[in-house]
Write a structure and sequence with these properties.
Helix 7 runs parallel beside helix 9 and helix 11 packs across helix 13. The two termini are 18 Å apart. With 306 residues, this protein is an all-alpha fold. The model has no long low-confidence stretch (mean pLDDT 95). It contains 16 helices and no strands.
Length: 306
Amino acid sequence: MDRAFGDPRLAEMRQAAQGGAERWPVLRAHLAAADGDEDLTFLVEGVGDIAQVEQWTREVADADPGDTLALLVSGARHVEWAWQARGRASGAHVSAEQWKVFRERLLVAEEQLYEVAEREPSWAAPWYFLQVSGRGLGVGQEAAERRFEAVCRRAPGHVAAHRQHLQQLCAKWGGSQERMHAFARRSALAAPEGSGLGQLVAQAHLEDWMEAGGDPDSTVLHAPHVVRALHEAGARSVHHPAFARRGDWAVGINTFAMAFALAGEDAAARAMFRMVRKAPTEMPWRYMDGRSPAVPFLAWRARVGA
């Protein structure tokens, strides 16, 4: 699984991030040259899962307290580090110690990210990561809405932020499936053709499948209105000539691949698997196998004949 999504900049950054504070100039150069808010978010998030980043970013910040990019990376890392401590299991299966560490790390993240937002009020990236930390801290739907809107004021159409907000609107996070679907459809239809926001429709139906038990042989997505919605969303986004392979573009293709496969639309699923080739992404395949998401990707690719 290529966690750099085929992006040579992120691949170099991920390698440099393992080298400690002395390699910070490599990361910083790429971050400073990011092509807008979505690209900056993509690059920062791309090093958030690498161990020890939370340690050497402290060294960088101590050496240069005014380096806001270092503070942003640290805040983003603390968000991911918190979720690593919690694990991906349902809340009932998270221990008291895990909850304690989870909350402690998220509170550090919030302090740092709010500091970044204050220093650089035009940046969308800190507000994106505050969406994720806020969900973990249970800030509630109104506060979550404000954080999402803060991203969109600075970067309308921010695909990753919309994905995070859809999660917030799910029933499992205090929302409802009805609100989730309304948001997905509204966002997809309001976006320009070729936008990655079409994937929200597929993501929402995968959430329904999970709510129904997540059975690979379930026919819950076979309903005609679901199939129709998936094809309409795909035509407006990943199948449109204006669709661009930038950032974490492969997440959207994989989301459609899994949704079409579970909907029994083998031909449509094959097209998605062929488009993404050998680039599985953690989401959505971890819904089938949290430890090895590539396993269901390969199995379903073979199952639909791609």
